[in-house]
Amino acid sequence: MLKIINPGLSTSIQDLGRPGYFHLGIPMSGAMDRFALRAANMLVGNPEDAAGLEAVFMGPEIEFTQDAIVAVTGADLPAKIDGDIREPWTSFEVRKGQVLKFDYLKGGARAYIAISGGIATEPNLGSRATYPIGALGGIDGRALIAGDTVPVGDQGSTARAGRRIADDLRRGPGTPARLRVLPGLYWHRLTEAAGQGFFDDEWTVAAEADRMGYRFKGGRKLEFVEREQPFGAGADPSNIVDGCYSYGSIQVPGGTEPIVLHRDAVSGGGYFTLGAIISADMDLIGQLQPHTPVKFEKVDMPTALAARADRKAMLQRMRQELG
Amino acid sequence: MAQILSSLPGTFYMKPAPDQDPYKVKGDSVEVGDTIALVEVMKTFVEIKAESAGTFARYVAEDGKPVTAGAVLAELED
């Protein structure tokens, strides 16, 4: 069991998510950087879809009531046991009674903490992922608070300290972060100059960036092709007759600040979406701090699929190297 | 000289509200746990508290500007 002494800013139980209900308005949730969560689980001998903790910007303080193997991946948020730093992306031992703490964030945004045995809260709709707005998953459907006790499952026989993920497999965003975009169904709504400007401009992550969506600012306002708004669509040119949103889709309300929908996003609404971030780059968004510079890069479907295959190949190499 | 660091990235504020005075001014005594500043991130204002006691010297970060985690926000005199 884990005793939460201090939850940090926002620490939630997440697994790989709750797919299959988006058409009913229930988002997939799960880790924003699923690559990092898979890696953390592999390091401690868990199934890759086991539930762990996602800590944003600040680490929690956790007392262990049992021995465990732990790994921290994703953001560079140094873990400490009894004041001693533990290597990131490397499994380490925590003994019963010890307290896991964290130093200040040095890079990235979200750290993933896997515990051997995995977190064993009651799943909702097939997942332990916390979705606070829908009160699903986690503990009572919310992020952790001080005083929570978190159940942990029985650890697998392969859990051991000292396993390490190679440096070149520790995937994270560069500076500026490069996010690849596949233009979508509503691309024709933008003028050619506006479409070009979107990719030419440097954007920065706005303060309003969370598990629902990441907002970007600093680029030029988008101009739309003139039209008479169809029946049912709002008056602003960025409005459409309500449609479906995909994971990763980019809406630009009023043409000013693009918002990328992420794991806890709504599934539909009345804004046009200019395209979507390719699936392989969604993990990187989870590691962006506010004020980080970002460039959007236009790609086609074969490039997006190749990037997806590359990400898969990195995970496969990780599995083989950890054996 | 003790420094007070930001525990998270965000926007730094030295006042509890725009129309109020800064939390501390030069010469104020600082106790462990005193709130020194706010850092706003993800629509949340997080209080930054002193981890050592002393006499307040100055704010180092600029009001309303972005700070990184680990950035020096303020300094205490010994």
Automatic annotation (TrEMBL), chain A:
Entry's Gene Ontology molecular function annotations: ATP binding; hydrolase activity; transferase activity
Organism: Sulfitobacter sabulilitoris
Pfam family, one: CT_A_B
Domain of life of the source: Bacteria
UniProt keyword list: ATP-binding, Hydrolase, Nucleotide-binding, Transferase
PANTHER family according to UniProt: 5-OXOPROLINASE SUBUNIT C
Name recorded for this polypeptide: Biotin-dependent carboxyltransferase
Residue stretches making up the Carboxyltransferase domain: 23-314
SMART domains documented for this protein: AHS2
SUPFAM superfamilies for the chain: Cyclophilin-like (SSF50891)
UniProtKB/TrEMBL annotation, chain B:
Pfam families documented for this protein: Biotin_lipoyl
This protein's UniProt keywords: Biotin, Fatty acid biosynthesis, Fatty acid metabolism, Lipid biosynthesis, Lipid metabolism
One Gene Ontology cellular component: acetyl-CoA carboxylase complex
Function description: This protein is a component of the acetyl coenzyme A carboxylase complex; first, biotin carboxylase catalyzes the carboxylation of the carrier protein and then the transcarboxylase transfers the carboxyl group to form malonyl-CoA.
Pathway the protein takes part in: Lipid metabolism; fatty acid biosynthesis
Descriptive protein name: Biotin carboxyl carrier protein of acetyl-CoA carboxylase
Native organism: Sulfitobacter sabulilitoris
Entries under NCBIfam families matching the protein: PRK07051.1
Domain Lipoyl-binding positions: 1-77
GO molecular function annotation: acetyl-CoA carboxylase activity
